[in-house]
């Protein structure tokens, strides 16, 4: 391992970013919070984005993945480029002896995932996937309850998510199925990774369907799925990005004092897209959501957002045990026991981004396999691919590449 600088608690890792889009904007505040990670470089094909980065972080800038990966001042490369480039950019970094921390999905095929895993092992580098929401305190606490069996055995999980994803500003890649566009590719990895983390990781079968309901946005905008795990736990995962109902209304319940500060407006994204009037205008709106744009504040939040808004709270997640049910709340977890209910308060910070960055840091410094390594990322990818296969063939799909949760 190479690193520069140091502190009383260990070496400082120098991190370079490939792709200054929305993903990088969300992760940069957490990188900045970590006392032993320093953002030192960025690569993008947009010089204006690089200029903004240099102004804020005073780091090196590059116009290609090859160039940044040759820099001797970088220990870890964070890959936040469009899905179709994940494999290519990861391989460039790994062959240049850089540890890789990458956005989900790790790639688009199981064969590419195997090549990436082999490259990491061959070069003695760590390969980790950014499944940050599985590191959220609420999710980790539910997993602790599963392991301790304080409410008996986990039996069932149900996770429903409805929002405006399909009608928010999208790039051409995000609206092209072959390039990993659409809700199953963009949102499925989050939802399935959370369910796998809680239930133990080993999905046995998947039965699902996806839907393309708007020919003007020709990618799957929804899915509905049923998962059975090897340990007998069953789960439903539902996601719709068609901008009708917003399931945040079920998570931020007014009657419990959890009202959202800015309630979702029905079909707001559809209306804004229609008023934009052209693909060029949509691209301008999308660009404004990249790093340094006015569509996000310096902390990576949407304009007007007055408190942390974890992705996991976009819809209800209920975990059912022998002796009770547990659901997510804005303040933590609500437990419904056999005789009473109580809330477990959990902090907003540190959040899942902080947890996963520390996981990557510890894996690089101590040389141990991260829980979110390439094998774990490939297992979640297998579930995403099963959505499409099951929907096309209208049958249950057996899994064969699953790995267990590391506790």
Strand and helix layout:
Blueprint: E1 13-18, H1 22-33, E2 37-43, H2 47-57, E3 60-62, H3 65-69, E4 76-79, H4 86-95, E5 99-102, H5 110-123, E6 127-129, H6 137-148, E7 154-162, H7 183-186, H8 188-199, E8 203-211, E9 222-229, E10 234-240, H9 248-251, H10 268-276, H11 279-287, E11 317-321, E12 324-329, E13 332-336, E14 341-345, H12 352-366, H13 374-393, E15 397-398
Parallel strand pairs: 1-2, 1-4, 2-3, 4-5, 5-6, 7-10
Antiparallel strand pairs: 7-11, 8-9, 8-15, 9-10, 11-12, 12-13, 13-14
Number of domains: 2
User: Quick one: CATH superfamily of the largest domain?
Assistant: Dihydrodipicolinate Reductase, domain 2
CATH fold description of the largest domain = Dihydrodipicolinate Reductase, domain 2
| Terminus-to-terminus distance | 25 Å
Strand share of the residues?
15-25%
Q: Taking all residues together, what is the mean pLDDT?
A: 92
Structural class: alpha/beta
Tally of contiguous helical segments: 13
Query: How does the major sheet shape up?
Result: 9 strands, mixed
